[in-house]
Amino acid sequence: MTERIAVVTGAVTGIGRAVAEALTQNGCRVAACDVDEARGRQLEQENPRIRFRKCDVSNENDVAAVVQAVLEDHGRIDILVNNAGIIRRRTGEEIRTEDWDAVFAVNVRGAFLFCKHVTPVMKRQRSGRIINISSIAAKLGDITSAPGYGPSKAAMDALTKTFARELAEYGVTVNGVAPHAIRTEMSAQWSEEKRREVIEAIPLKRLGEPREVAAAVVFLASEDAGFITGEILDVNGGCLMD
Predict the structure, then answer these.
(1) Residue 148: which domain range?
(2) pLDDT of residue 120
(3) Has residue 150 been placed in a domain?
(4) Cβ contacts of residue 23 below 8 Å, gap of 6+?
(5) Where's the Ketoreductase domain (predicted)?
(6) Does some domain include residue 176?
């Protein structure tokens, strides 16, 4: 994967940061996209193979500008990881319409926009890897009082399979990774009681680590995964076996 060019969204914390760092460890140069400029600049300073790009993934002008800037710098984009995501914790009865819309704007529209703008690049190259970070909630439904989150990730899974079919003839693979119970800022919001309940339901009896999700992404981005497309890879400690 030496000198391959990757774009990672939601890249300054948690899974996104772990993915960006893992890709650089495997020889890639990474455009790390996020709205958090302070953390982004810090990440950039810590890793010379990462360049921060401020980007609101729900804004098409921002997305187009990032893709254009990466092409101006490197002339190609080999890997796209759509990791940016948000959650709003309310019950189905209580959730506000604006919260629902905000979740879909980032989790679905953001992934779509990056897929849309990277597609012509990868088609010209006749190669590329797109990996979308989904969730076990796409398959099980909401399990953490966040009714917009699971549906948004289910939509992302459908998006993954749609682009996988569209781009296969161009040598581009499109896959998803569906984590559960990873030690991130998002899971840190759980109460201690909720944490115990989640761990008890996991056969491996622990939380996952961001680096374990990143390892799955690196595999799907590698040449070894060239015959895999349209797949959603579970990283959940055995909580869901399908």
Answers:
(1) 5-235
(2) 99
(3) yes
(4) 1, 6, 8, 30, 79, 81, 217, 218, 221
(5) 4-193
(6) yes
Q: Which of 106, 208, 189 is nearest to 148 (CA)?
A: 106
Of the candidates 210, 223, 164, 165, the one whose C-alpha atom is nearest the C-alpha of residue 4 is 223
CA-nearest of 123, 116, 117, 129 to 81 is 129
Number of domains in the chain: 1
Write the pLDDT tens digit of every residue in 150-187.
999 999 999 999 999 999 999 999 999 999 999 998 78
Is residue 225 situated within a structural domain?
yes
Least confident of 13-27, 76-90, 142-156: 142-156
**Local structure of 22: helix, strand or coil:** helix
Tell me if 240 is assigned to some domain. Answer: no
* Residue 173: CATH number of its domain: 3.40.50.720
Distance, in Å, from the CA atom of 172 to the CA atom of 128, rounded to the nearest integer, reads 5
Active site residue 170: no
Choosing from 149, 152, 176, 239, the catalytic residue is 149
